[in-house]
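User:
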Amino acid sequence: MSSARLAVLATAVLTFLSFCGPFSDTLELLSHWRIQILGLAILSGVFVAWRGTRKIQLAALAVCLLNAWPLAQHLSRSAPPASGSPEPTDITVLAANLHGDHVEALSFGALLDETKPDIVVLTEVTKAAETLIRSRLPGHRFAWSGDPHRLFSALIGIRGHKPELAVRDTLPEHNLPWASFHACPKACATVVAVHSPHPDGLSPFNAQSLQFSDIAVEADTIRPDILLGDLNTTPWSPHYVRLLDRTGLKDAAPGIGWVNTWLSALPGLGLRLDHILVGPKVVVRAYRVGPNIGSDHRPVIARLVVTE
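Assistant: Predicted structure:
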C-alpha cells in the first residue's frame, strides 16, 4: 500500500471512530480532539495532493469535510456578540479551575483585580486560594456548592449579593454536585455552576453524561440564564451537543472558539474544557480566555448583558 493511501486510510479510520461517541463511551473521548483530527486530515490531504491518485485525493477531501462538519454545526450553537460599547449595567463573569496548589497567587489575584468580576465560579479551590480570593473580592458574598474544598465542589461569589443556592447532587456516592443560584449583581439571572467529572469512557457508567442529563431535565424548571464552569468536555462532544440542544443554551465563545483552556501550557494545541453558556435573555458583549495563572486550566471571562 502506498504511503498516500496509508495516510488517508489512517485518518479516515480515526475520523470514523471519533463519530462513534453516541454508541461508545470509550470512543466518545476521540470526539474531543476534532480540531486536531481535522489538522491531521488537512496534512494528509496536502501530502496526497502531489503523491496520490485522483480517487485518493477525493477521499482525503471527504475526510477533511467530515471533520469540518461538526465545526460548522457549532456556529449555530454560538451566541452572536452584541454591538456597541460596554454599559455600566453589563456584568462580568469569570470561571476558573484553580487545580490545587499549583495556582500562582499573584497572577490570579492580579486577574481578579483587572477583571473585577461580578460573578465568579471557581473549582478545585484550596483553603489558601479561598483566602486570597476573599481578600481580593471584599465586596462579594460567597457560598459553596457541595462540600468545601472537595474536587467537584465550586466556590461561588456574587458582588454584593449572597447566593441563594439550590444544590443538586447527581451522583451522591461520587460527590458530583452542581448548583443553581439567583444572581443579582446588576441584573438578575439564574446561574448554574458546574464542575463535571472527566469523560471516563472506561468507567461502567458515564458520570458526565448522567450529570448533563440531570441538568437538562432541571432546566425545564429553573430556566438557567448562564451556565459556567469546568465542564471537562469540548464543543465537539455528543454530550455537550445534547446539553445545548436540550437546554436551549448558546456557547458564549465566538465562532468555533479555536483557543483552548487546557492544557494552559500548550495554547492552541489542547482542548476547550471550560465554558460559559448563555440563555436567550443574555447577550454576549465580549468573551476571552484568560492568561496562564499557574493552573493546568486557563480561566474564561465574559462580559454579558442580561435583558428582561
